Amino acid sequence: MSTDPSASRRKAPIERAAEIARAAREIALDEGLPALTLRAVASRVGVTSALVSHYQPSMETLVATTFGTIVAAEIGEVAEELAPCETSVTALQTLINTLLGPDRSTVTAVWLDAWSLGRRHAALAVEVGVQMDAWQAFLSDVLRTGCARGEFRAIDPDAVAWQLLAIIDGLNAHAIVRYGHAQRLRGLVRTVAEHELGLPPGALGPDDDAEH
Amino acid sequence: MSTDPSASRRKAPIERAAEIARAAREIALDEGLPALTLRAVASRVGVTSALVSHYQPSMETLVATTFGTIVAAEIGEVAEELAPCETSVTALQTLINTLLGPDRSTVTAVWLDAWSLGRRHAALAVEVGVQMDAWQAFLSDVLRTGCARGEFRAIDPDAVAWQLLAIIDGLNAHAIVRYGHAQRLRGLVRTVAEHELGLPPGALGPDDDAEH
DNA sequence: GGAATAATTGATCACCTGATCAATAACCGT
DNA sequence: ACGGTTATTGATCAGGTGATCAATTATTCC
């Protein structure tokens, strides 16, 4: 019983570090990036603020890495969801539906916080750039694959990826601020995608109420 | 010399109130909404923080009204710029060029701050809603006028206005975070607008390098 | 079992935030 | 010229922020 975690207050560094990172993620997701404070993390984990400081070089980096982790996880989830799609058309369809779905609001809120905070927060600004590039690279890959398969016809998949992401972010931002969800406006993204990728109108349309 | 302002420290309430409001606007524009603090305003005006508190019921409301003033002024400026346009097509063209121009970054930054802060800031959230509606109403009017003139064909101008604003906001957000300007991506907005308004491709295109 | 190692704590620092209060000073009307 | 009105100040409060320090434990190694 030497490693029984229930009786001992002291934990292995790796475990505690994971605990802190997890708490940070939770706080960021349900209270926003600005609420990600030294004492908030400590309180959620159930330790002293000094301990969080001991595990983290600074709050600046914790905020940045927490944001990065959340967004990276989001990309991973979407990638996993797209994997079983047999055609690039269904993949793009799924991607649009997921990214504009009602479950996206929490992550979108984190993005908004990051955009705002990033202007006075060097480390976060860098991470925002990295994650935006990651998203672009991911979507760009989907488009390129579609072109290779002969499903899409795009001169500049990189540019189209940026455009689609910008539209999706804009719609989601509006949705989170003004309405509850952005699903109503999916049609816009579909139309743009069809136009930019040389698809016939309606090619991305049918599968509207397909998910859950 | 009884009303000489240079010798007297004391000022008329209306004048001081205007001074405070102006300082608040300046701070918000070049340091961001989160930098709009009691002492920052006081310092810029050259008075005590207590005086700012005396003129403002709370920082919460000052932030909200400052944001509202900035955005309302933006709408006013654009409206003024669109007034001389003889056709709705050139009006829409001008609007797109202006809204995605390089001078928009400061106001876009304020929007980002407001979207982020608005989630923990009741008064600001209300003002954000009001100003978004104002923008939508303004653009919607432009589109409706174009329809009445027979230049546009849109089934639902309100919806198209929301869509165009969402795209513009998304592009501007991306531009401010990742690149210096969103001008490169104007083509996207034009394409969408042309498609949604029943215009021939390229109808909004030509006047690309028209402004300084 | 005893000693070295390191996770954890509690206290504290310096700084920022918004807000309130009595006291002071300037202005205006008479 | 004087008195009332009020703009303005200085001080101060309560609370929050990130960060650092020695001291205290718990764990592990020998």
Report on this model:
Two copies of one chain form a homodimer. The first copy, chain A, has 212 residues and is an all-alpha fold. Chain A is 67% helix and 0% strand. In chain A, helix 4 runs parallel beside helix 7 (122-148), helix 6 packs across helix 8 and helix 7 (122-148) packs across helix 8 (157-178). The radius of gyration of chain A is 20 Å and the shape is elongated. The N and C termini of chain A lie far apart (45 Å). The model of chain A is unreliable at 1-7 (pLDDT under 50). The A-B interface holds A 32-35, 109, 112-113, 115-120, 125, 128-129, 132, 162-163, 165-171, 173-174, 176-178, 185, 188, 191-192, 195 and B 32-35, 109, 112-113, 115-120, 125, 128-129, 132, 162-163, 165-171, 173-174, 176-178, 185, 188, 191-192, 195. The structure holds a DNA duplex (30 and 30 nucleotides).
